[in-house]
Amino acid sequence: MPKKLLACMAILILSACGSQPESPTDDPEATLPVAPELLPADSPDPDHWLQQARQADRIADREAALVHAAAAFFENEQWRHGGVVLSQVDTLSLSNQDLLHYRLQRARLQIHFQQWEEAINSLSDIEQRLRQREQRQLAMQLRYQAYAGQQRYLSAARQLVELQRYDDNDYSQLIWNNLTQVPADYWRQAVREPDEQMRGWTSLLTRITQALDHREPVAEALQRWQNNFHRHPANTQVSNLLEHHSWLQEQPRRIAVLLPLSGQFASQGTAVRDGILAALSNERDEDVFFINTQVTDPDVIQQKLYDENIEAVIGPLDREYSERLAATFNAHDEPRPWVHIWLNQPPSDYQPAGDTFFALDVDTEVQMATGHLRQKGYQQVLILGPDTQRGRQLSGQFEQQWRDYFGNHSTRVGLYSSSTDIRDIVEERLHVTASKQRIALIERTGGDKEIESEARSRNDLDAIFLVGDATQARLLKPFIDMSISAFAQTIPVYATSSVHEQTQGRSENDLDGITFSEAPWLLPAHDSEYLFKRFAELRSNWTPSTQRLIAMGYDSMFLLPRLTSMNWFPGYNHAGLTGQLRIQQHSVVRELDWATFDQHQIKLEPANEHEVNWDFL
Question: What is the three-state SS of 178-239?
Fold first, then answer.
C-alpha cells in the first residue's frame, strides 16, 4: 500500500487529527437563509471507498476513490474526517471529471467553514464542464450558499432562478427573501435582465420601490404587476401579500402621537412634536392627535386609541412609560388595528405585531462604527473610554464585535477613572510608558554620558475609537497627539455623535482631527439645511441632542405610511434627517454620515458610505 494512503488511514484512526480548521463561530452576519438540501452522496459509505482506494491498481483510480470517500464523509457530516481525506488527494493524478468532483467537495468543505470567497473560487467555471445533471445541481446549490453567506443577495437569487430549472422544488419564497434584502437603490436604477424569470422579479421589486418612494398604495402596484406577469412564480408571494395584508390598500389617516409634553421630559417631547408638525406642513392631510403621556394613564390611552379609530401610533418617547404601555397592551390581549412606531427600544416581554422601534441610541452608533472602520481596512484598534458602567458597556460592545472579525488580539481597551489618569492610560496603551522605561534604563547604564532619545509609540495600531462625550474627547485628544511619535504616521481617531455638541464659546480646535458619526440633519450641505436653520433660529438655546429629536419626529411621519412594507422589505431605505433608514426585525436601522472636526469647521468625509457596491450584489 502507498505510504500516503497508509498515512491517511492512520490519521483517521487518531482522535486528535490536528490540521483541520476550527469549527465556525456563531457569527450572525454569516447566518444563511434556509438553503436547499444537498444531493445525496454518489457512494455507499466512506469505508467502501477507502477500501477501493486501498485495492486500486492505478493511481488515478486510487485518487478518485479518495475523493468519493471524502464526499461520503461529508454526507455523514463527518467534516473533520472528510477534510483529512481530501487533503491527501493528488489532484495532478485525477482525470478532468474527477478533478471537477474534487473541486465540488472542496467547495462543500469551504462552505461548512464559512470560507465563502474560497468556495466561489473553487466553483469558478465548473457547471458547464460537469457531465452529470446532479453534479451541476450540486454546484448551483453550493454557489447559492456561498453568495448567501457573503450577503450577496442578488447573486444568490439569480443562482436560485437558475437552479429552479434543474429540479421540481419551488424556490420562489427563498428568491423573494433574498431579493427583498437587496438595497433599494439597485431597483431605483434602470435594471435590465436578459433572463425572463429575473425580469419578472426585477419588475416586481422596482414597482414596490417606486410605490414606497412616492407614497402610493403598494397594493395597486402589486395588482398592476400581476396583470403583466400572471404566470410568473412570484404570483404566490404577491397573492399572499394582497390576501393577508389589508393595510396595503390604504394609508393611515388618523394618527395618535404619545409624548411627554410637560414635566421632566417636556423639552424632549416638544422637540419630537415640532418635527412632526414640520413634516405635516408638507401638504399632508392626516388627522394627528397629540396625547400628553405625563398626565394620561396607559389604560386611558389604550381606550382613546380604540374610541378615536386610530390607524397609526407614534410614541411613547421615554422608556418608563413605554414599559407601562406595553404591559397594558399585554394585559388586555386584544387585537390592535393600528401600526405603531415606538420612539425607543423594544419594551421588556413585548412581542411586536404591527410594531416598529425607532431609537437614537449610541449603542447602534457603536455597532455601525465597527462596520465603517472595517470598510476603511483597519484591523488593529485601540478603544478609549471612561471607567463607568456605560463606558465599559460600549467599550465591551465594540471590542466584542471587532474581535468577532479579527480575533482576540485585534483590540486593546483603555479605561480612565478621572481626568487625572487620562495621560497615564493613553501613554500606557500606546506603549509610550514602556518606551520611556527602556530609555530610562539605557540612561542609567550610560552613566554621565548624555543620550539623545525620544519615546516611541506603538506602530501596529490602525485607528483609535473613543466612546466618551465631547468633554472627555477634549481631554484625550491632546495626550493622543503628544504620544504619537514624531516620525510615525498619524493614527486616525473616531468617535460617535456624543462628541458633537454646542461649544458655548469653546473652540472646536480642541477636537481637531476627530472623525465622528452624525445624523445628516446636523451636518453641513444637507438637503433640508434650510429647515435646520429655521429651527436653529426659533430654538437657539437647544443642543444637538434636542435637534436630533426634531429630526426623529420628522422622520417618524415619513416612515409611517411605509412602516409595514419596510418590515418585509428590509432592503428598502429612506433618506431621512436622522440617517439612511431601513427596518430589520422590527427595528429602524440608521446609517449615519461621517464628518471631521477641522479647526473651526466640520467637514464631511468625501467618500459616500451609502453608495451601493454593484459588483458585490
Answer: HHCCCCHHHHCCCCCCCCHHHHHHHHHHHHHHHHHHCCCCHHHHHHHHHHHCCCCCCHHHHH
